[in-house]
């Protein structure tokens, strides 16, 4: 019961101290004077200052005689308390109890807070333009050296911009300096302009102190242009040399054409697997070897249209030698078929020539066999004629005179 009574008495005393207290706001680094009401105008003075701040673990009592706290706080001849350069650690409660010469006691109570106004906020990494229908980073608003922290807010065309997580979103960060205790604020704004909306919106950012009756600080407004994206046409993949069949050590150039505004990012795929290459509309394959053979395609990624893949093209190596094209190369089966057809035609031609030569030789032999009997018949006829002429001549010679 005694402890409860003591606690109740302490609460009562504390409430008396709080009643009639004044809130004092002081700028960091500036001097602060707190008056002790009822203090005698001239020494010797019967007064006592007590303070409970960030510099003390409990109540600290200061007397007019001075002491080691003179550099932080000291009592003036008129009984007031002077803080030469108030800081963040001086935030807290200050109390004075003064007794007049006639024994009257007067109490004073102060709640001290400090503040620091930063410089004007700035927008770093501002965008140069925005694209309708897709999220865009407008910029990052930065405020340095404030206390208390305060807040940052964005404005669109002179009106407060309320983040809704869809058309506008804000990513905030607050840091405190380990030595000075001052705050640095950052606010990154992302917006998604509506299609057919305002073509040239104006943005700005402002810092609002946490303390009342302190004016907000504004950045200079800046204006951006909103581009309406051009629809993405069909993605075309060109290969040079045409057909994609090359000799070993040759160079193959793949070019991905995806006209759009703004230009999309181009990534490459081989045999169904994305290649670990930076985005580029051109893929160069120098000194082509077996490891480069395969099927290639490109993917155009546009923020407002999504990814779109081109048709696939095949890259193959043609080995030139006596045994013909290397098996497995693109076009190898076609070339093998052509070579087979040419071989068959060549064989048929050779057979036809041989058959023709044989037939010609047989005709020559038959012609010779025919000519021999004809000559024999002529000689026999000539012999018979000669025989018939000889008896006639004999008869004519016998019948002469």
How are the SSEs ordered, and which strands pair?
Elements: H1 2-18, E1 22-27, E2 32-34, E3 46-53, E4 60-62, E5 74-75, E6 81-83, E7 92-99, E8 105-115, E9 122-124, E10 129-131, E11 136-146, E12 151-156, E13 159-160, E14 168-176, E15 183-191, E16 202-208, E17 217-218, E18 222-223, E19 225-227, E20 236-240, E21 245-246, E22 252-257, E23 265-270, E24 273-274, E25 282-285, E26 294-302, E27 306-309, E28 313-317, H2 332-398
Parallel strand pairs: 1-8, 10-19, 21-28
Antiparallel strand pairs: 2-6, 3-4, 3-7, 5-6, 7-8, 9-11, 11-15, 12-13, 12-16, 14-15, 16-17, 16-18, 20-22, 22-25, 23-24, 23-26, 26-27, 26-28
Description:
The protein is of the alpha+beta class. Helices cover 21% and strands 36% of the residues. Strands 21, 23, 24, 26, 27 and 28 form a six-stranded mixed beta sheet that branches. A five-stranded mixed beta sheet has the order 1-8-7-3-4, with no helix packed on it. Strands 12, 13, 16, 17 and 18 form a five-stranded antiparallel beta sheet that branches. A hairpin with a 6-residue loop joins strand 14 and strand 15 (183-191). The protein is rod-shaped. The model is unreliable at 1-19, 322-339 and 388-401 (pLDDT under 50).
């Amino acid at each position: 019961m005694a402890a409860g009574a003591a606690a109740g008495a302490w609460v009562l005393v504390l409430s008396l101290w709080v009643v009639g207290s004044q809130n004092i706001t002081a700028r960091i680094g500036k001097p602060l004077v707190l008056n002790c009401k009822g203090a005698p105008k001239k020494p010797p003075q019967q007064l006592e200052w007590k303070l409970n701040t960030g510099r003390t673990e409990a109540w600290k009592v200061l007397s007019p005689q001075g002491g080691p706290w003179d550099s932080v706080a000291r009592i003036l001849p008129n009984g007031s308390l002077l803080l030469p350069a108030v800081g963040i650690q001086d935030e807290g409660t200050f109390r004075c109890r003064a007794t007049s010469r006639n024994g009257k006691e007067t109490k004073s109570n102060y709640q001290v807070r400090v503040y620091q106004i930063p410089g004007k906020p700035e927008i770093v990494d501002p965008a140069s333009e925005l694209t309708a229908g897709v999220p865009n980073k407008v910029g990052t608003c930065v405020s340095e050296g404030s206390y208390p922290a305060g807040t940052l807010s964005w404005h669109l065309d002179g009106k407060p911009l309320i983040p809704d997580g869809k058309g506008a979103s804000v990513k905030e960060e607050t840091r405190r300096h380990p030595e000075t205790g001052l705050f640095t604020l950052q606010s990154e704004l992302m917006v998604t302009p509506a299609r057919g909306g305002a073509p040239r919106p104006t943005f700005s950012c402002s810092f609002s102190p946490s303390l009342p009756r302190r004016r907000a600080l504004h950045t200079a407004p800046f204006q951006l242009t909103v581009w309406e994206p051009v629809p993405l046409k069909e993605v075309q993949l060109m290969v040079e040399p045409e057909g994609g069949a090359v000799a070993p050590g040759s160079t193959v150039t793949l070019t991905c054409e995806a006209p759009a505004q703004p230009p999309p990012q181009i990534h490459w795929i081989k045999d169904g697997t994305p290649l670990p290459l930076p985005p580029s509309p051109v893929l160069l394959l120098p000194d082509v070897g077996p490891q480069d053979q395969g099927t290639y395609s490109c993917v155009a990624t546009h923020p407002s249209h999504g990814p779109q893949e081109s048709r696939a093209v095949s890259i193959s190596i043609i080995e030139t030698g006596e045994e013909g094209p290397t098996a497995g190369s693109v076009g190898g089966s076609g070339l093998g078929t052509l070579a087979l057809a040419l071989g068959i035609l060549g064989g048929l031609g050779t057979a036809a020539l041989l058959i023709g030569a044989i037939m010609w030789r047989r005709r020559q032999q038959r012609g010779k066999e025919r000519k021999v009997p004809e000559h024999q018949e002529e000689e026999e006829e000539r012999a018979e004629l000669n025989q018939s002429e000889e008896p006639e001549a004999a008869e004519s010679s016998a019948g002469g005179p």
